Amino acid sequence: MAKHVAVLKGGWSVEREVSLISGAAVAKALREINYEVSEIDVTADIAQTLAVLKPDVVFNALHGRWGEDGSMQGVLEILQIPYSHSGVAASAMAMDKILSKKLFQTVGIPTAEDKIVTKAELFSDDPLPRPFVVKPYNEGSSVGVIIVRADDKFDPGMVGPWQNTDQLMVEKYLPGRELTVSVMDGKALAVTELKPRAGFYDYEAKYQEGKTDHIIPAQLDRRLTDLIMNYAEKAHNILGCRGVTRSDFRLDDGPGGDGVPYILEINTQPGMTPLSLVPEQARHGGMTFAQLVSWMVEDASCGR
């Protein structure tokens, strides 16, 4: 009999729309290779829904808080349904930028200088020399990220992450090239350089077609390529991730740059949209989208 896969998508995080696209793409590919698929737009009664449905496996295509931060993983552990991607602890640690950066540092992965501040502290005085980056400490996909440059107006009346949380991470702005590495079963697949056609690699640049050029493989020397891929594998392993992750880096290797690849964050449930980077890197290595999602279903587990 065909394995029954419940694809979780949507939910209520700020990344809902991207999750719906990811989930639809995954469900379509799984049906094409003869899995039985149930698509679920997740609501607060998801435990009851799954208890009635009784799938063999859950493909978790949720993005952002509640779906990617260990919450949904905890529900699936209680229900004892094998699920894709990382477990409870790894998911929670990866979403918490404060904690994950401390863990990256223990294995020698460079990170940007940062401070954790409240909204009041942020606007009482610049917490770091400009330019600096302000971001929520527990969101993904560059949600809420802003860059404060030397002459920018900066006050509480502006739109920013402080409208949704009082605990913020402020980081030194890192100029240079935007790079990303997918890790599958503990092994790095490739390094892609991302070149936004305007601004920086924000939420819009990630998910709107034509906003960003993807260069795969990134034009780096062998030493740097190997180093960045090694850092991505270390980040995956130090958090105890499983399945597929994607780590993002900044590298300033131009004149006057320090040539150091700094990790920005790790994503334990990377996007699976037509523009997403994990499918692109898998394809670069000879794996179709259907083969990728099938591997992720067969890799699913609980209890680890």
Topology of this structure?
Layout (H helix, E strand, L loop, with lengths): L3 E6 L6 H17 L3 E6 L4 H8 L3 E4 L10 H9 L8 H8 L1 H10 L7 E5 H6 L7 E5 L9 E3 L18 E6 L4 E8 L2 E10 L6 H5 L4 E4 L6 H17 L5 E8 L9 E7 L9 H8 L4 H11 L5
Parallel strand pairs: 1-2, 1-3
Antiparallel strand pairs: 4-7, 5-6, 5-7, 8-9, 8-11, 9-10, 11-12
Could you write a compact summary of the structure shown?
With 304 residues, the chain is α+β, with helices and mostly antiparallel strands. The chain has helices at 16-32, 46-53, 71-79, 88-95, 97-106, 119-124, 203-207, 222-238, 277-284, 289-299, and strands spanning 4-9, 36-41, 57-60, 114-118, 132-136, 146-148, 167-172, 177-184, 187-196, 212-215, 244-251, 261-267.
Please tell me about this protein's structure:
The protein is 33% helix and 24% strand. The chain is an alpha+beta fold and 304 residues long. It has a five-stranded antiparallel β-sheet. A four-stranded antiparallel β-sheet has the order 4-7-5-6. It folds into three domains: 81 residues, Rossmann fold (3-Layer(aba) Sandwich), CATH 3.40.50; 140 residues, ATP-grasp fold, B domain (D-amino Acid Aminotransferase, Chain A, domain 1); 59 residues, Dna Ligase, domain 1 (2-Layer Sandwich), CATH 3.30.1490.
